[in-house]
Each structure stands twice: as C-alpha cells, then as structure tokens.
Write a structure and sequence with these properties.
Length: 129
Amino acid sequence: MTPDKIPGKEECAGSLKNVLDALYVLNGRWRLAVVLSLVQKPKRFNEIQNALSGISPKVLAKELKDLELNEFIKRNVYPTTPATIIYEATEYSLTLKNVLHELDAWGKQHRERIRQSMRSENAVAAFSL
C-alpha cells in the first residue's frame, strides 16, 4: 500500500488481515521490548527483567514462551549446576528492524505532540486566571 493513493476495498481487506496477523504475534505491552532487549545482546531471565522495569516474572515467562514459539528468540540451556539459560534474538527477529524503527519515530513524534498539547493547555489555563 502506497501512502499516495487511497486503497480499494480488497486492498484494505488484505491489509487489515495482514495487520491483524502481525498484531496477533506482536500484541502486548512487552513483546517488542523483549525482542529489542535481546537484539542488543543475549541475556538471562533476570537480566531481561532488570532491563524492562515493571514486567513481572510471570508475564516475562509467558512473553518469552510466545516469542520462542514464533521464532523471534531462541532459548539456550547450558548444562551447569544449576542450569544456565540464555535467551537470544534470532535472525528472524531482525525482520522487525523497520517496524521497531517506525514505532520509535512515531513514539517520539507522539510524545512531542502530547507535550505541545499540554503546554498549550497550561498556557490557556494560566492566561484565563
């Protein structure tokens, strides 16, 4: 879909299906953040949890399982006592590079828009006092 033209009904339906498929796999507050954390470098469970402040161990465990199931990450178990488990991003996770870049840019733009909106509201409130 190009940004210049208005898509037809069939193209919209196809795009909607693709977007829903992508959201099904990437849905959730933490999934892309976990992938981004592991793209930087492989990590143990606690290292991931520390990098993503606010995620509970239960939620992180579920997200890791789902990401592994969808082949975005790999779980490596090393035979030590106790067992050492290292999670790493797969080559497939690198296909999210453009998605992550666009979300980063959009998030920055949105944050600035909200800041500007809050400044305008505060200025109007101060002026009307």
